[in-house]
TrEMBL record:
It comes from Mediterraneibacter faecis. GO terms for biological process: ATP synthesis coupled electron transport. The chain holds residues 192 to 564 of 564 of the full protein. It is found in: Membrane. This is 4Fe-4S dicluster domain-containing protein. Its cofactor is [2Fe-2S] cluster; [4Fe-4S] cluster. GO terms for molecular function: 2 iron, 2 sulfur cluster binding; 4 iron, 4 sulfur cluster binding; ferredoxin hydrogenase activity; iron ion binding; NADH dehydrogenase (ubiquinone) activity. Belongs to the complex I 75 kDa subunit family. The keyword Membrane applies.
Amino acid sequence: GQCRVVCPTGAISIHTNIDEVWEALADKNTKVIAQIAPAVRVAIGDNFGYAKGENVMGKLVGVLHRLGFDEVYDTSYGADLTVVEESKEFIERFTSGEKMPLFTSCCPAWVKYCENKYPEFVPNLSTCRSPQQMFGAVVREYYKDPEKNEGKKIVSVSIMPCTAKKEEILRPESYTNGKQDVDYVLTTTEIVRMIRKSGIVFDKVEIEAADVPFGIGSGSGVIFGVTGGVTEAVLRRLQQGHNRVDMESIKKSGVRGDDGIKVLTYNYNGREIKAAVVNGLANADKVLQQIKNHEAEYDFVEVMACRRGCIMGGGQPVNAGPRTRKARMKGLYDTDVNTQIKKSNENPMILSLYDTLLKGKEHELLHRNFSGK
Ligand code: SF4
């Protein structure tokens, strides 16, 4: 591609793959698969006259089908896989006391920051791949089946709120058997450009549901797009059952809200889990210093590089002031409220995957393969 997009946080410019995606869409010998990240659906409407924060997922799915995407899936599904794997990893570490606290690793800008500035904490990073990467690996595996790929080449495209996600797909640790899983990342603003160029009138398109089997995410998967979402999703997973009182107490634990650093405790089988929910790298720096200087002790630390999380990512429509940011947050939490399945491990499409495609392959497809580990 000739066009460049500029990353507002890193002051680096990144090539766009819009041209390659157009080519793949036009090629009859390809099957083009899209995954849409949670934060995209509450921000893309900004460009097409919708109320701030309105979830326009149904429209976006319809539009992508018209653009020629063969299957349109939901990254919330990948987020559900991340919750299941990361909760398991957390309990193992919490029980053994090794490599504590556990740091989330689904934000590539944070992972890079930790590697560069705090290499001593790299072992604390979760080995779980990010939702985008888990999704990418599962899609590749699924379409190996000739009945599924129909003899066509699979082109895997992610629609992300984030420019750092473009680099994440190139990291060999997240490859499966030495191969890159996701081919291209388009940011929200890039897909807006493609929609405009196509002449499709966004608000005139009929809404559609995401495709099966990877189009169904739980409410936990959806809230990944906002700071605190990963922690809330993991706590829900750790909670037995799903009665409303317990879900409500997690919601009220201090996990939500705008603050750059939130600290909360959660009772798990009589033991206290202390979590820090951090957004913004300056805040991450503060928390890492605290941990390093033994001024604070945590069991679980969620970090998102962008203030307020992915809803305010560098690939989202700009000029988002406080009202927009509140509306996007509300948009995701309302989506959770309206989703029947609240817990990742209760998503039936996730459960069936563990019994089929993932059997014996959890490590190969869902975890990073850091060399020497
Ligand atoms: Fe990307 Fe920002 Fe989300 Fe990190 S917090 S994954 S940098 S959008």
